[in-house]
Amino acid sequence: MATEYGVRTEPGRHTLPTALRAPFAGRMWKEFVYLLLSLPMGILFFTYVVTTVSLSAGLLVTFLGIPLLAGALLGCRGLGSVERARARALLDLDVASPLPVRGEKAGVMSWVGAVLKSGVSWRHLLYGFLHLPWALFSFVTSVTFVVTSWSLFLYPLWQWVFPEYLNQDGITIFSDGSREFYVDTPFEVVVTSATGLGLVLVSPWLVRALTCVDRLMVAGLLGPSRLATRVSELESDRGVVVDTAAADLRRIERDLHDGAQARLVALAMDLGLAKEKLLEDPEAAARMVDEAHGEVKVALQELRDLARGIHPAVLTDRGLDAALSSVASRCTVPVTVDVELPARPAAAIEGIAYFTVSELLQNVSKHARASRASVEVWRTQDRLLLQVTDDGRGGASTSSGSGLAGLAERLDAVDGVLVVDSPAGGPTTVTAELPWRR
User: Fold this and answer.
1) Which parts of 281-415 fold into alpha helices (H)?
2) Residue whose C-alpha is closest to residue 169's, from 186, 182, 180
3) How many C-beta neighbours within 10 Å does residue 387 have?
4) Are 356 and 318 in contact (CB under 8 A)?
5) Closest residue by Cα to residue 396 from 356, 365, 425, 358
6) How far, in Å, CA of 402 to CA of 116, rounded?
7) CA-to-CA distance for 32 and 36, rounded, in angstroms?
8) Does position 3 have pLDDT exceeding 50, yes or no?
């Protein structure tokens, strides 16, 4: 099911081309209504801005001018929220609301200062100034074009109005007092209707072009600043990083407690028993020491695996190529590794790349039912790209709750991107993009 020109459609069900459907689609008429409402909204916004700014400027010689100007800016933000809602409803343009104004300290004057220093507030005021002339132009242009085009197209249906009520044969083309020419013959009526049809087919694109300017104004002047958006993203990413680090610490603690620590406690008890039997039953003590020796080897292997999970020594010493080859050798399916890097990226990015590939290959081993896989790593400008491909059953996604969703959040925390292409039946291709930062 697809959405085109505001109408829900199914592929292959249309008999008319897009150009013929566009004048009747809901999207065109929603955009036209937006342009109609822009003029009264523009007048309201412009009148408010001019009145409040003029009043506050006139009172700047007194103390009242400054708080009045701050109140005017706050009112502009309120009108801006109405404009964002109108654009969301009629243009399908979802612009995020800017962050609320907060003073550095408690008190009215701190709040007034914060409002006056807010670039978002001044951009709302600028929108109020600039939108009215454009709203007037787009209103007149769209109404004239749409009404004229439909009037000409439907002329055969209402031509009877002229002789019935205006005492003339049709639309007047030319009149100089002595001569008059009307659109009244069948041929002229058909040509007029055909001209109107051509204009009707063009009208959606004209309306769309006019609303494109409105989209730019709303998104550029009424949305949050890039700095504020970036700060919000960083705050969100910081939360993800903190949660991830806490989860990793809990995992390490659990692995130590349930694995190596428990094994070492049992080993200490076995050695204690062997010590007690050393004089009474040397052969039994020797068997217990031999078993303890095996337990020591297992504990050492568990500690090595745990250390490798924290940060493998091969990655620090030899880089991604050797580290990923080591990971690939432990995968349950054959994996080809191709790493083409002119140099080593930042250590933190290198570690994230390693663990990303490790987790993706674990997914291949556990869930993909693949017969082979491949890992490719390369650099493009200032970005590090990883791609893991397998010929398994497919169906992987970054939906909420999946392992890939958590991996995508980790990459997003460092301005990375994770793209999954995994149709049902396979193959699966997962591409990760990370900043180089070196």
Assistant:
1) 282-310, 313-318, 320-329, 347-363, 403-412
2) 182
3) 18
4) no
5) 425
6) 45
7) 6
8) no
As a whole number of Å, the CA-based R_g of the chain is: 36
Q: What is d(CA 122, CA 70) in angstroms, rounded to the nearest whole number?
A: 10
Domain extents in the chain: 17-163+193-221, 228-310, 317-435
Alpha-carbon span 289 to 86, nearest angstrom: 80
Of all residues in the chain, what percent carry a pLDDT higher than 70?
Answer: 74
Q: The tokens 């993706």 sit on which residue?
A: 360
SS3 call for 379: strand
Upper half-sphere CA count for residue 206 (Cβ side, 13 Å): 18
Residue environment code for 154-169, b if the CB has 16+ CB neighbours within 10 A, otherwise e = ebeeebeebeeeeeee
Domain 317-435 top-level CATH class = alpha beta
The span from the CA of 324 to the CA of 344, in Å, is 14
**In this structure, what token pair is assigned to residue 97?**
């609301």
pLDDT in tens, 45-73: 999 999 998 888 888 777 788 888 888 88
Is pLDDT of 375 > 60?
yes
Question: 171, exposed or middle or buried, with CB in 10 Å at 0-12, 13-18, 19+?
Answer: middle
pTM exceeding the 0.85 threshold for the entire prediction: no
Neighbouring C-beta atoms of residue 135, cutoff 10 Å = 24
Specify whether the CB–CB gap between 302 and 261 falls below 8 A. no
CATH topology for 228-310 is 1.20.5
Mean pLDDT of all residues belonging to the chain: 78
